[in-house]
From TrEMBL, chain A:
Domain of life: Bacteria
Annotated protein name in UniProt: C-type cytochrome
InterPro entries from the UniProt entry: Cyt_c-like_dom, Cyt_c-like_dom_sf, Cyt_CIE
Annotated source species: Thalassolituus pacificus
PANTHER family linked: CYTOCHROME C5, PTHR40942
UniProt entry keywords in alphabetical sequence: Electron transport, Heme, Iron, Metal-binding, Signal, Transport
Domain Cytochrome c: 19-98
Record GO terms (molecular function): electron transfer activity; heme binding; iron ion binding
PROSITE patterns for this protein: CYTC, PROKAR_LIPOPROTEIN
Signal sequence range: 1-19
The keyword Hydrolase belongs to this UniProt entry's keyword annotation: no
Keyword match Calcium: no
Length: 98, 473
């Protein structure tokens, strides 16, 4: 019984870690795909392992990079509607390997 | 401008210059930006308010409030209860200071989408927060295409209308000229509708409104039946490009040129409608590294400026002709967000090539350190009061430099040339004109000010830049 509960809990945690709300996906589609889904852009590609090393820098650093812009990435990725929390959600979404 | 139209090849450059030197030259390619730690301030509601910067990074501000209304009612409530100035922001593609404010920054990004498409009447409603790149696919589902489009299509539709955003084509006007009706909220929080027949003064002012009249929420646009395009680009000599400009303009639906400073070359780009049955099935894949090639060349020239002309000519001389085919929005649009700063002036169409020639000669003569291509496009005249194309067909010349390279000396050297040819600046790009100079260039300037005052008597929608360019104390 305890084993079953533990397995269920782990599954729930795993699912919630990967769950992305529809709004974050919409923001990704509108603002991020022009670079993060086009390899020639030089930007880290969504849903690949290219995010692993970047995540090691810490989420605060990555969100700050997104806010300020970095390299060829424009500040906020030009998302005027995004909050810092939205940017974090999008980064987590792109960092999922599929 | 769309770098992917130039089939400049990095491999050839590497051969020319030697990989070691190139590697040294490109070491600074990443970013000169020093990230600010924990950017933003705490707003009056206790939540973090992020700073704003435009797309290229040459404009910044720290608003004390950011608002993103979810519908028109919410927007009108905001306006009725406003206690401080509000500037509206689209996707931040203006290089001039149209947006910066330390007070309320309002985005219509959540008022987006294309709806009420009427395929028989060839019309559709487009919300102001819609990215231009989102319009084409949606219209295509209904068997429609936009009449024309800019080559960068990541701007917000509302921002594009505010600044006479345009593509190219002798018989084609700016995106504002495709608008049939507009909805715009005034400072009192009232929604107004306008067209060429209804509230016509407001309509002719709103086609290039600078966000100074109110908040445009939606427009009904004219469209075309869905069509495919063939784009052909080829390199020719600078002299040939300038001499044949009018002939090529007259023989293609869209024609533009990329002049390459310090070279003897110019890229011609001709775009025409094509029957899909004529599209070859085996299209060549573009190399896709033109931007990187220019970037590499620019950094290399920083190390060996004496080789500038040779290098640019070497790169340009290896560019092969290319032909692309696709749905209208696939050919018009630019896939990659390549950052730069830009000055654009529109001169009368008949003196365009002459003006461009003088700019290219000046760059060589003064040895101005720029290799970024200069884009030149023909656009049909219109009747929008503050449009650079007001009552005259125009030749828009766009000068750029990489976003992290100095552009001020370059632009300062060429802006007087534009003045000499009676040029009118793009309102959303870099210029140094003030109200008196605009008034001299636009016969309906004072009419625009009158409509602005009717819409916004207290200056709710003004910032310092607008007060200066419109002459409002």
């Amino acid at each position: 019984m305890i084993k079953k509960l533990s397995t269920g809990l782990l599954l729930m945690i795993a699912c919630s870690a990967n769950a992305t709300d529809e709004y974050s996906k919409e923001l990704y589609d509108i603002y991020c795909t022009a670079c993060h889904a086009v390899a020639a852009s030089g930007a880290p590609q969504a849903f690949t392992s290219e995010w692993d090393e970047r995540l090691d820098k810490g989420m605060t650093t990555l969100v700050n990079h997104a806010i300020n812009g970095i390299g060829n990435m424009p500040p906020m990725g030009t998302c005027a509607e995004c909050s810092a929390e939205d940017l974090e959600d999008i980064i987590r979404y792109m960092a999922q390997e599929q | 401008m769309n770098f992917d139209r130039i089939q400049l090849n990095r491999r050839n450059l590497l051969k020319a210059a030697g990989a070691g030197l190139v590697a040294a030259g490109t070491a600074g390619c990443s970013s000169s930006v020093k990230p600010q730690e924990n950017p933003g301030i705490i707003g009056k509601d206790g939540k973090r308010v992020l700073p704003w910067s435009n797309w290229s990074g040459n404009q910044h501000c720290q608003p004390n409030e950011r608002l993103v209304p979810r519908n028109e009612d919410e927007l009108l409530t905001i306006l009725r209860n406003a206690t401080q100035p509000i500037r509206s922001v689209g996707s931040g593609h203006s290089f001039s200071a149209l947006v910066p404010t330390d007070q309320t920054l309002l985005s219509l990004a959540r008022l987006r989408g294309v709806e009420n498409v009427d395929a028989d009447a060839l019309e559709a409603d487009v919300w102001a927060g819609t990215r231009l790149s989102q319009i084409g696919d949606k219209l295509w589902e209904h068997g429609l295409s936009t009449i024309n489009m800019s080559d960068i299509d990541t701007q917000a539709f509302g921002g594009a209308l505010a600044t006479s955003t345009h593509g190219t084509g002798k018989e084609l006007g700016t995106l504002s000229t495709h608008v049939k009706t507009l909805r715009i909220a005034n400072a009192a929080g009232e929604m107004l509708e306008c067209s060429a027949e209804q509230n016509s003064d407001l309509f002719h002012a709103a086609g290039n409104n600078l966000g100074a009249l109110g908040i445009v929420t939606k427009a009904r646009i004219r469209t075309d039946k869905a069509y495919y395009l063939k784009e052909h680009s080829w390199m020719m000599s600078e002299d040939e490009g300038l001499e044949r400009a009018e002939e090529l303009r007259d023989t293609h639906r869209h024609y533009e040129m990329y002049a390459l400073p310090h070279s003897d070359y110019m890229l011609g780009i001709a775009i025409d409608k094509i029957d899909p049955a004529e599209i070859p099935t085996d299209q060549a894949e573009p190399s896709g590294d033109a931007y990187e090639a220019f970037r590499m060349m620019s950094n290399l020239i920083d190390y060996m400026p004496f080789a500038r002309s040779w290098l640019v000519n070497f790169g340009a001389g290896g560019v092969e002709p290319e032909t692309r085919y696709g749905k209208s929005h696939e050919i018009f649009g630019n896939l990659r967000d390549i950052r730069f700063n830009e000055m654009e002036y529109t001169v009368p169409a008949e003196v365009g090539p002459q003006c461009l020639r003088e700019i290219l000669q000046t760059i060589k003569k003064q040895n101005i350190p720029v290799i970024f291509p200069i884009e030149a496009r023909y656009i049909k005249g219109d009747d929008v009061w503050l449009s650079p194309f007001y009552k005259r067909d125009g030749f828009a010349i766009s000068c750029h430099n990489f976003h992290d390279k100095d552009y001020k000396k370059y632009f300062a050297a060429i802006e007087p040339i534009f003045w000499k040819y009676d040029g009118r600046p793009h309102w959303g790009k870099i210029h140094t004109l003030k109200a008196a100079e605009f008034a001299a260039r636009y016969e309906r300037f004072n009419d625009f000010l009158r409509v602005r005052k009717e819409m916004d008597p207290q200056g709710l929608f003004l910032n310092d830049h607008l007060r200066s360019t419109l002459g409002i104390s």
